[in-house]
Amino acid sequence: MSTKTTEPAEVRNTKQRRAVTGALQRLEDFISTQDLHRLLKDQGESVSLATTYRILQSMAELGQVDVLRSADGEAIYRRCEAQHHHHHLVCRSCGAAVEIEAPDVETWAEATARRYGYADVDHTVEISGICEQCRAAERAAGSADPAR
């Protein structure tokens, strides 16, 4: 993930970009482009789906949003909390995500790149599992089921 935090001069601060940025700042969870577009429309914002895609892509390139892939492969976005390189631990059940530091992964990635003669390497690591809240809900549902 990029560590850029400022927008270059060629990125215009349009009404549509402000609407997308504002909506993302109010959300805690990751959201797809289509769902974000629907949310903006429901809020009375006039932002086309194509413009929503372009703005999110630009924000991803600038390191202003985190991008993950949902279980069906769709890109989902969330405003970055950390302004530096980080990774994610994502719940496969509810989609909750935690930003994590992984110095051992960084060391491994750099060493692997050097071993194969690569430079200027970037990487993304996403670890998925089931969060404690979802596991607790599953346990509670299981204990409430008399057939078990």
UniProtKB/TrEMBL annotation:
Binds 1 zinc ion per subunit. Binds 1 Mn(2+) or Fe(2+) ion per subunit. One of its GO terms (cellular component) is cytosol. Zn(2+) binds at C91, C94, C131, C134. GO terms for molecular function: DNA-binding transcription factor activity; transcription cis-regulatory region binding; zinc ion binding. One of its GO terms (biological process) is negative regulation of DNA-templated transcription. The keyword DNA-binding applies. Keywords: Cytoplasm, DNA-binding, Iron, Metal-binding, Repressor, Transcription, Transcription regulation, Zinc. It is found in: Cytoplasm. Pfam families: FUR (PF01475). Fe cation binds at H85, E106, H123. Its cofactor is Zn(2+); Mn(2+); Fe(2+). Belongs to the Fur family. Homodimer. This is Putative Fur family transcriptional regulator. It comes from Kocuria rhizophila (strain ATCC 9341 / DSM 348 / NBRC 103217 / DC2201). The lineage of its organism: Bacteria, Bacillati, Actinomycetota, Actinomycetes, Micrococcales.
